[in-house]
Amino acid sequence: MIRKANLDDLKRIIEITQACANLMISKNIFQWNEFYPRIQTFEEDVNNQTLYVIENNSKVIGCLVISDYMDEFYKKAKWLTASDKNIYLHRLAVHPDYQGKGFAKKLMNYAFDFALENKFKSIRLDTFSGNPQNNVFYQKLDFKKLDKIYFRDQSDKPFYCYEKVL
Fold it and tell me: Within the chain, which residues score under 50 in pLDDT?
């Protein structure tokens, strides 16, 4: 089941994202760290009603932000569509115990359905250039790799912008 997150979910979401960060670091993927993602960011997502969670047997096992807000750093990218009716996906995470079982794809399909129902032109996101698994995942979902952007608090390596035109 996928539903909007609430403040009671935050402790579990931080457990999930820390477990994901630890797994990535163990694979020399330095995408998330002690600076990102933080609980304050997820609190804002809940307050903005943009954070969704996926449950398995009534237990929260993953999350995804679906927002129509274009962050400042995305304004530098060259997108495939005009920037007026797009959604942005952030902080996709599935607890390592549940990875490889299709839950990330279920969250993405939920976002696709949301975008289509609300007549958005495209879906945009970014992912770390040093995370080959994520890059393949998004390309298999028909996202097109576009520009590079940088988040210096996270890494000196670039993040790739992706867009899927609907």
Answer: none
| Rounded Cα gap, residues 70 and 83, in angstroms | 8
- How far is it, in rounded angstroms, from Cα 28 to Cα 134? 14
Q: Is the dihedral of CA 101, 166, 127, 66 positive or negative?
A: negative
CATH of domain 2-165: 3.40.630.30
Supply the angle between the helices 39-47 and 10-26 in degrees, to the nearest 10.
Answer: 130
Query: And the tokens for 155?
Result: 């890494």
Q: Which of 55, 64, 61 shows the shortest CA–CA distance to 88?
A: 64
Q: What is the pTM of this model?
A: 0.95
DSSP, collapsed to helix, strand or coil, labels residue 123 as strand
Domain boundaries, the chain: 2-165
Neighbours of 82 (CB within 10 A): 9
